[in-house]
TrEMBL record:
Alphabetized SUPFAM superfamilies for the sequence: PIN domain-like
Domain PIN, residue spans: 16-131
Pfam families: PIN (PF01850)
Tree of life domain: Bacteria
Name of the protein: PIN domain-containing protein
Amino acid sequence: MGMARAGKSQIDKVHLDTHIVLWLFDKELDRLSSRSKEYIDNSVLYYSPLVHLELQYLYEIKRIRDKPDTILTELLVNIALQSSELSFDAVIRQAVQNTWTRDVFDRVIVADAQINNAPLITADKTIQKHYKKALI
């Protein structure tokens, strides 16, 4: 995957769901659609700070082997992935409206993308059903 650059013609901001961050870290690019790969190559990439927390949770329950800081630092260096810096209050106010799921991680991750009116790359079928800018 190429690195998105600020000076490039861009689709704009694109947010990544937790499992997409893991796929990129594990270099499982074949799991992504060609459209998602294009977005990744031509956009500024963001993740919700809740992705960091979810990665920590997955690490603690031994579902992933690498620490979140290792994963996120490598992706910052390799693809310029950065944490969204939206107001926590604004994100939570948006997440409260996402009543289509009880999954707190999903509610907040989607809310972060919604505030930016940005695509969210995710394989989660529930998110795809309820967030019109979700793609895989």
